[in-house]
């Protein structure tokens, strides 16, 4: 068994559900195929079935911190987990989507759920206990235990009060806002706060005749915190300091959207660097023993920033299903990234090879790589014989015994030095020698082989010219000079192509300006004429 742990910023984050870490937008077919994966088979679940088929909307912990409520869809359901047993306590389904819920007791025995169909569903240990409806669509719930009253806010300028002690609706509390979006009760003094539309916040005592002082938000924000997701903030809470521990920093705020939960300083907006999980018995020991580091956040996806996205030419895909926003960038499929990278940087592989090439004996390394590539191509083209595993020997460049040959300057060989030429008189002078041979000579083809290659219907004979298209380096090759001039230029080590690119004055100066040279007749009837310029402006022509 194995537990995946990722620490991109130094804070360890454990995957408690186990299995391959896939994003929620991945195809369901791909997620189902992971059942045959070895990583999935060796998984360990720290909390049984701590996942929803589609979406998990809200999570709350009971006051005794022994049970965990989680609501989600599809279909609308609630799951209660026993933290002490690390297991699923029960699961219940609903007829409508759950908008909000409140835990009414210290444990899981009493809870109320606000449905999308304006239904208040009260649950006990055994299941549904009572259902009632509210006049308008509800948006938030709040509960005060001293008075045993439930407050419901919704699309109306009032708060509906339900007395659980008397079992009836009380007089509603009027509000100045046209609608109420969120409710909260202070655990210190029981002050009820209602956040309404148009940026209005109302705070009041939970009594009908008590005043309702209100305050509007300032036109200028004190602190701005960007989640970098372009998604609405779903939850915003103050983070209380642990009991008995003095806070070294200022007040902390916990904000969340559908992507991430952030803890940051209320004054400066700086993110809190150290977040430690609460002690959980033997769970930490299991995590430390079985943890396995994962280099990426998601498999089969690559994280790219906006700058990298512009460089790849994929900025127009922002907002589509091909790019998934994450923190300060996006998640992109690896296959699409590879294609875009090849188009944006077509010479990236050549630059990589040049950078990867050794600094010492680079020409020798290039010849060895070329020979190794030819050998691999021949092995792929030639079918393996019976009993032949066709296993290649390790390349010389990867052999640790010859590693110093391409790293130590003491083993460097200068093929242009006089000592090397004296020891290797027949060795080619490098790229220039090969260039001169290709310029001045043509490969001589065997007439008998050409005749055999033209025979129709003979597959064996037709295969011979194809094999000669790439002659073996060990076989002798015959060359024929293209002309007498080419042969003379090759003997003197000159390139006619380079001379054609030179100006006429430079060519005359290189010839030495000799007069009286007779014209020469070329094999095809052309004639060569030389001339020289005199101070008097007279020209001497031959021909």
UniProtKB/TrEMBL annotation:
It is found in: Nucleus, Nucleolus. Residues 297-345 form the Nucleolar protein 10-like second domain. Residues 399-426 form the NUC153 domain. The keyword Nucleus applies. GO terms for cellular component: 90S preribosome; small-subunit processome. Residues 372-385, 494-505 have a biased composition (Basic and acidic residues). GO terms for biological process: maturation of SSU-rRNA from tricistronic rRNA transcript (SSU-rRNA, 5.8S rRNA, LSU-rRNA). Gene3D superfamilies: YVTN repeat-like/Quinoprotein amine dehydrogenase. It comes from the Eukaryota. Residues 7-216 form the Nucleolar protein 10-like N-terminal domain. SUPFAM superfamilies: WD40 repeat-like. Pfam families: Beta-prop_NOL10_N (PF23098), NOL10_2nd (PF23097), NUC153 (PF08159). This is NUC153 domain-containing protein. It comes from Prototheca wickerhamii.
């Amino acid at each position: 068994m194995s537990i995946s742990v990722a620490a991109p910023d130094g804070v360890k984050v454990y995957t408690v559900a186990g299995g391959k870490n896939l994003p929620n937008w991945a195809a369901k077919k791909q997620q189902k195929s992971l059942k045959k994966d070895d990583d999935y088979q060796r998984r360990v679940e720290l909390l049984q079935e701590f996942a929803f088929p589609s979406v998990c909307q809200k999570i709350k912990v009971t006051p005794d911190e022994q049970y965990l409520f989680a609501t989600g869809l599809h279909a609308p359901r609630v799951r209660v987990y026993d933290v002490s047993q690390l297991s699923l306590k029960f699961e219940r389904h609903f007829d409508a989507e759950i908008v909000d819920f409140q835990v009414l007791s210290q444990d899981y025995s009493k809870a109320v759920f606000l449905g999308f169909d304006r239904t208040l569903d009260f649950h006990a240990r055994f299941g549904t206990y009572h259902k009632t409806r509210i006049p308008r669509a509800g948006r938030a719930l709040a509960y005060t235990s001293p008075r045993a009253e439930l407050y419901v806010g919704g699309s109306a300028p009032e708060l509906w009060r339900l007395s659980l002690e008397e079992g009836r609706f009380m007089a509603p509390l009027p509000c100045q806002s046209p609608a109420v979006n969120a409710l909260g009760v202070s655990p210190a003094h029981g002050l009820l706060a209602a956040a309404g539309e148009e940026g209005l916040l109302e705070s009041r005592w939970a009594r009908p005749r008590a005043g309702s002082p209100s305050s509007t938000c300032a036109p200028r924000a004190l602190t701005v915190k960007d989640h970098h997701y372009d998604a609405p903030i779903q939850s915003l809470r103050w983070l209380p300091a642990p009991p008995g521990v003095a806070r070294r920093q200022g007040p902390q705020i916990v904000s969340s959207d559908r992507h991430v939960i952030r803890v940051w300083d209320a004054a400066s907006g700086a993110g809190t660097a150290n977040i430690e999980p609460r002690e959980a018995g033997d769970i930490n020991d299991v995590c430390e023993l079985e943890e396995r580091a994962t280099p990426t956040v998601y498999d089969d996806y690559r994280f790219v920033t906006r700058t990298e996205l512009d460089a790849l030419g994929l900025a127009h895909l922002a907002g589509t299903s091909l790019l998934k926003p994450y923190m300060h960038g996006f998640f992109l499929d690896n296959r699409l990234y590879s294609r875009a990278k090849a188009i944006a940087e077509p010479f990236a592989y050549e630059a990589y090879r040049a950078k990867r090439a050794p600094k010492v004996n680079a020409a020798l390394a290039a010849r060895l790589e070329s020979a190794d590539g030819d050998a691999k191509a021949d092995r792929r083209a030639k079918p393996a014989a019976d009993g032949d595993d066709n296993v290649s020997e390790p390349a010389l460049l990867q052999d640790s015994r010859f590693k110093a040959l391409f790293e130590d300057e003491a083993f460097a060989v200068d093929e242009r030095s006089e000592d090397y030429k004296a020891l290797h008189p027949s060795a080619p002078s490098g790229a220039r020698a090969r260039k001169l041979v290709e310029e001045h000579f043509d490969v001589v083809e065997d007439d008998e082989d050409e005749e055999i290659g033209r025979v129709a219907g003979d597959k064996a004979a037709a295969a011979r010219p194809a094999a000669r298209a790439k002659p073996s380096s060990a076989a002798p090759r015959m060359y024929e000079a293209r002309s007498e001039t080419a042969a003379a230029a090759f003997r003197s080590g000159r390139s006619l192509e380079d001379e054609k690119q030179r100006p006429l004055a430079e060519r005359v100066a290189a010839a030495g300006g000799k007069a009286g040279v007779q014209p020469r007749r070329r094999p095809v009837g052309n004639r060569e004429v030389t001339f020289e310029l005199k101070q008097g402006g007279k020209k001497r022509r031959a021909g």
